[in-house]
Design a protein that fits this description.
Order of helices and strands: HHEEEEHEHHEHHEEEEHHH
Number of helices: 10
Number of strands: 10
Distance between the termini: 19 Å
Helix content: 25-40%
Shape: globular
Strand content: 15-25%
Structural class: alpha/beta
Radius of gyration: 22 Å
Number of domains: 2
């Protein structure tokens, strides 16, 4: 495992262990915390590998889901100015089969910051695009990391209950399982590795179409889709009442959630070896069978005018003629936050 990918909790435990002659002389509190962490991680990995023995079909899929570290366009490594400029942040949410040597395709949902951002609703739109590309699917099992902003939040959970209860697909259930922080290597990471390697070999990636082409050429059995319709997915968590089961619900402790057609409840586990519990977290009047309103079909988030001008003036002039129109046609919106300059890159990466 690369040094930068080492688990923080495991590394801290190893450093703490150096202070003592042996494990037995360590404070029980430190040992117990580490043992619980390791047990949780091992249990998740064991379940992940078990799901990896199942074959995917049109009706049932076992996949991992991960948002790739952001890609910045244009990618022009020989141009020094490019490294010091605010460029276009580009996103890839990958869905990859976890079965080894699977014949099933990995799917990359791509978009860039001039189209939309990366808040909870944007991630749901990417998930929904994947689901709509697999409309005959009845059961979906997703493995992902514990990132609350992307994969463990009330907007996502509200959306998933709506999606399984809506007639736009054949879904009967969706199960999301979470790998433990620091122990999250999954099949989607291999897809990202292939893409990054192809990008290095490709060298210049001038525009969004170049990036899509690079992803398509990065490996066999891969397909790219874009988000053609965006919804304004709401968060419909109700207020917590006195003696409410929801009062003791802790998102951080959840290891698995399930959404079942015909139910508006959230089914969840805090340990993989326990039976599922259920909780009704939705506002009572919320109709979970109706998709939310769409954002205007041709809505574009846009980027700041000065950002667009700098890219055009310093980089687009060095591109082939066939790549220039993308940049000249990028929508402008000075109200949109610049994701590379407004303190969000640390979150995005």
């Amino acid at each position: 495992m690369p040094k930068g990918d080492r688990c923080v909790e495991c590394s801290m435990y190893e450093e703490e262990l150096k202070k003592y002659s042996d494990v037995n002389s360590m404070p029980e509190e430190i040992k117990t915390k580490y043992e619980n962490h390791k047990s949780k991680a091992d249990s998740a990995l064991q379940r992940y590998r078990l799901d990896g023995t199942n074959k995917n079909s049109n009706r049932v899929k076992y996949i991992s889901m991960d948002l790739q570290k952001v890609i910045i366009l244009p990618e022009m490594p020989d141009i020094k100015d490019a490294f010091f400029m605010s460029r276009l942040v580009t996103f890839n949410l990958t869905f990859a089969p976890i079965e080894k040597k699977s014949s099933d395709f990995a799917t990359c949902v791509l978009w860039h910051e001039a189209q939309s951002g990366r808040d909870a609703s944007d991630i749901v739109n990417a998930i929904y695009a994947f689901l709509q590309a697999n409309r005959d699917m009845e059961h979906l099992y997703i493995w992902t990391d514990n990132c609350t902003a992307q994969n463990k939040n009330w907007t996502l959970y509200t959306a998933m209950i709506t999606i399984v209860n809506n007639s736009s697909n054949d879904l009967k259930s969706v199960t999301i399982s979470y790998l433990t922080k620091g122990h999250t290597h999954m099949s989607a990471d291999a897809v990202h590795g292939n893409i990054e390697l192809k990008m290095k070999r490709q060298k210049n990636i001038y525009d969004f179409q170049d990036f899509k082409d690079t992803v398509m050429q990065s490996r066999k059995n891969i397909k790219v889709i874009e988000i053609t319709c965006r919804y304004d997915w709401p968060k419909k968590k109700r207020a917590v009442r006195h003696n409410d089961p929801l009062k003791d619900f802790n998102l951080n402790s959840v290891v698995q959630v399930e959404f079942i057609a015909g139910s508006r409840n959230l089914f969840y586990k805090t340990r993989f070896d326990e039976p599922s519990r259920e909780v009704d977290f939705l506002i009572k009047k919320f109709d979970c069978t109706v998709l939310p309103k769409t954002i205007v079909t041709h809505y574009q988030r846009g980027i700041k005018q000065n950002k667009k001008e700098e890219i055009i003036n310093k980089l687009v002039c060095l591109m082939p003629e066939t790549r220039k129109s993308f940049w000249h046609n990028l929508p402008v919106n000075d109200e949109s936050a610049d994701l590379t300059n407004d303190g969000q890159m640390s979150v995005l990466e």
